[in-house]
Design a protein that fits this description.
- The chain has 91 residues and is mainly α.
- 73% of the residues lie in helices and 0% in strands.
- Helix 1 packs across helix 6.
Length: 91
C-alpha cells in the first residue's frame, strides 16, 4: 500500500464514521476532536491516523468499516502504518 492508497482509505474511514452517529460520538470522545476539527483536518496525516487508530481500537468498528468499504481486514492497519511514516506495503 502506497501513501496515496493509505490516504484514500483513511478518507473513506472518515466518511464511514461520519455516517454513523454512534461511531462519530465515540471518535470525538476518544480523540477530543470536534466535528469542525475533523472537517478541517481530514487531509492531515495526524487526523487520518487518529481515525484509523480509532477503528483499529475495537474489532466491531473495524469489521463494520471493512464490510462497508470492501477492503481487506488488514488494510486499515497497513494504512495506519504508512501514514505514521512506516514502510510502504507491497501488494
Amino acid at each position: 500500500m502506497n501513501k496515496d492508497a493509505a490516504e484514500t482509505l483513511a478518507i473513506q474511514a472518515v466518511a464511514h464514521i461520519a455516517g454513523d452517529e454512534e461511531l462519530l460520538q465515540g471518535l470525538m470522545a476518544q480523540t477530543g476532536m470536534g466535528l469542525d476539527d475533523l472537517r478541517a483536518g481530514i487531509a492531515s496525516n495526524e487526523v487520518q491516523v487518529g481515525v484509523l487508530e480509532f477503528l483499529l481500537s475495537h474489532e466491531p468498528f473495524l469489521m463494520g468499516f471493512v464490510e462497508d468499504c470492501g477492503c481487506a481486514p488488514e488494510d486499515p492497519a497497513r494504512a495506519q502504518i504508512v501514514l505514521s511514516g512506516g514502510p510502504i506495503w507491497q501488494d
